[in-house]
Structures are given as C-alpha cells and as structure tokens.
From TrEMBL:
SMART domains referenced in this protein's UniProt entry, alphabetically: CoA_trans
Keywords: Transferase
Cited NCBIfam families: pcaJ_scoB_fam (TIGR02428)
Protein name: 3-oxoacid CoA-transferase subunit B
GO MF annotations in UniProt: CoA-transferase activity
Domain of life: Bacteria
InterPro entries: 3-oxoacid_CoA-transf_B, CoA_trans_fam_I, CoA_transf_AS, NagB/RpiA_transferase-like
Protein family membership: Belongs to the 3-oxoacid CoA-transferase subunit B family.
Alphabetical list of Pfam families matching this protein: CoA_trans
Organism: Vreelandella zhuhanensis
Amino acid sequence: MALTREQMAQRVARELEDGFYVNLGIGIPTLVANYIPDGIDVMLQSENGLLGMGRFPTEDELDPDMINAGKQTVTARPGAAIFSSAESFAMIRGGHVDLTVLGAFEVDQNGNIASWMVPGKLIKGMGGAMDLVAGAENIICTMTHASKHGESKLLESCNLPLTGAGCINRVLTDLAYLEIKDGAFILKERAPGVSVEEIVEKTAGKLIVPAHVPEMTFEESA
C-alpha cells in the first residue's frame, strides 16, 4: 500500500540528526516538523526568514503573521530567529543548511532534479529550490513514484527543465526509499505491502535491487 503524506514525513524525520539545520520545502516536507524524534535538537529553516520553525499551530496558537515559505501558519520554537529573505538565502548559499527536503516532478538516475516548471503550464517561479539544491550536499526528495497516469517519475534522464544537476542523493516516494549512486537508483526500503516487482515496474531509470529489501514500519497513528 502506498505511503500517506504523513507516513512519508515520518520516514524523512528519521534521517534528522541532533544539531542539524534543516530546510523543509513546500508540501509534504513541511509535515516533517510534526515528527521530529524525541531526544534530538533540530533547527528548521524556512527560506522566507525563519530559523527555529516549530510544528503547525493549534487554533489558540494561530498567528497569521507567522508563516513558512508555503504561506502556511507555523509556530516558532524557543530560540528561534526571524530575519530577512536576503539573510536566509545567504545561509542557504553559504552551505550552512545540513539537510534539505523538497519535492519534485522528476528525478533521474544521475541525481538531476526537475521541480520548478512544466512547459505550457502556469509557472509560479522556481522559488528557492535552485539555491537549495546548489547550496546543500545532503538532499532528500519526496515525491510520488509515478504520475496519476502511471508514468514513472524516476527516470533515466529528466524530461522537464532542470532545477539542479547531479545534486540529489536520496529519494523517498510513496512506494520506496532509494539512494542514487554511480548512475543508478538503489532500492533501500519499500512501503508496507508494496512488492519489489511493483517498484521495478514503476521505475524507468536504472534500478539496483539488493537481495533483501526491508519494509518500512510505522506507528499506528501515522
């Protein structure tokens, strides 16, 4: 069974380490803030100028002026700092973000990512994605494994205009967790109830399948 958005966020959260500065992109990545493991201290950065982003607010905590890059209301944790977008991007471009989590339309076996436009469709702009993939060495891409028409998004070569080249090293889809190395996707884990055969069928790029591919496990509430 394909992972839910919440399960994807929970799985990404397991990659966080104590002391990390982490940028969470728009969409599924923002949910990671709700699943930070106990016992570690992580500072979440939003490129609109907030370092120390907390979980989503309750109705009583709601502050319309406290938003993330996706214009969703958020909270600020103790020790948070608010600054200009220019300073925020200086942090990103200076390589001070330990982990970036962002979405994509396509990723290929060489670590290229296409995430900012589909020709002929409305273009809102690339946002901070180009800076993020250029300024961070540790990137996780979250996405659906295939389009709603069943076409693979994990490709031999991206078809859409690139956001960045050779920059993606890990991908979490609704079906699997994969690493990208030496021009191939390496299957590391699969979603509960999803067969290796289904993942192979829906992966257009070169895929290396180890002898044993464990299933992900989740808490009942995820």
